[in-house]
Write a structure and sequence with these properties.
Elements lengths: L4 H23 L9 E3 L4 H6 L1 H9 L5 E4 L7 H10 L3 E6 L2 H6 L1 H11 L3 E4 L10 H22 L2 E5 L7 E2 L2 E2 H8 L5 E6 L1 H4 L5 H8 L3 E6 L1 E2 L16 E2 L8 H11 L3 E4 L6 H14 L3
Helix pairs in contact: 4-6, 6-7, 7-8, 10-11
């Protein structure tokens, strides 16, 4: 059969146009389509004064998933009532190191009352500078309490890095030792991307390296020009809106999705949350792939 070139040419042009439009459509898909969660520490000052009003403020931003770092003088039951009334949830409950080990059952009871599935610790008191001996001691403690939370209470324990764990060791760091020395079924991790970047680690590379060990994430960014170290400390003024700092957020979010991170919480420790949090949310909504 002889093909008519006058008919083929328009078809080829149409096919090319459809292909280009299809590629453009794929490239314009949201990189972060879900709503982020919020770490209560972002609004710590507001929560201390008015818990219900602060929950309303957060919900008005389109956020319903919370990680509480404190009960702010309230009972877990009262907090749960306020959450339920607003259609909000607490997925993670952060506590201090001493409470985790000295009040494990109480911590677990509060977490379950809140509806949380995760119990998180974010600081190791008196373990800076971090050493190999301390890393192994900490891992053993985490294995023990993580097993107790899982077996007796059905909860998942997560450790939140804070920067001082990234002391070089072998081909990696002491954070890698913490991961390697802990039992995956009893100990998971919350990646704070600022406190990974600050000591010189690459958050995206960590997600690729340790994959499903990371269940939770703190979304935050570090002010341009700030140099980090292993102290685990920096001025709260150095927390800036996502996309305005040093961290390659698109690379982090792509790696986090592949790793299977379950909850992403905005944490902005700065005194500028009124302007920065909406800017952060707009940045996340505007990311395309």
């Amino acid at each position: 059969m002889k093909l008519n070139k006058h008919r083929i040419q328009p078809l080829l042009l149409l096919a090319a146009a459809l292909f280009i439009n299809g590629c453009a459509h794929v490239q314009s898909q949201p990189l972060f389509p879900q709503a982020p969660g919020m770490c209560s520490y972002t609004y710590r000052n507001e929560f201390k004064k008015d818990v219900p009003g602060t929950l309303d403020q957060i919900k008005a931003l389109g956020i319903t998933d919370l990680e509480f770092s404190s009960l702010f003088g309230q009972t877990a039951a009262q907090m749960r009532q306020w959450l339920d009334a607003r259609g909000m949830v607490c997925s993670s409950f952060g506590v201090g190191y001493d409470d985790l080990f000295k009040k494990t059952d109480e911590v677990a009871a509060n977490a379950k009352t809140l509806g949380a599935k995760f119990v998180r610790v974010a600081w190791l008191p008196n373990r800076q500078p971090f050493t190999l001996e301390l890393a192994k001691q900490t891992a053993a403690e985490f294995n023990r309490v993580g097993k107790q939370l899982r077996e007796q209470h059905g909860l998942t324990f997560c450790y939140h890095n804070h920067g001082y764990e990234f002391v070089p060791h072998g081909d990696g760091t002491l954070f890698d030792v913490l991961v390697a020395e802990t039992n995956p079924q009893d100990v998971s991790f919350e990646l704070d991307i600022l406190w990974a970047h600050f000591p010189g680690a690459d958050p995206a590379a960590l997600l690729t390296k340790h994959g499903s060990r990371f269940k939770l994430m703190h979304l935050k960014d570090l002010k341009q020009g700030v140099k980090g170290d292993l102290s685990g400390k920096t001025s709260v003024e150095n927390d800036v809106a996502l996309g305005t700092g040093q961290i390659d957020l698109p690379a982090v979010l792509i790696a986090a999705r592949k790793a299977g991170v379950q909850h992403y919480y905005i944490e902005d420790e700065s005194p500028n949350t009124i302007t920065q949090v909406p800017q952060t949310i707009a940045y996340l909504k505007g990311l395309k792939q």
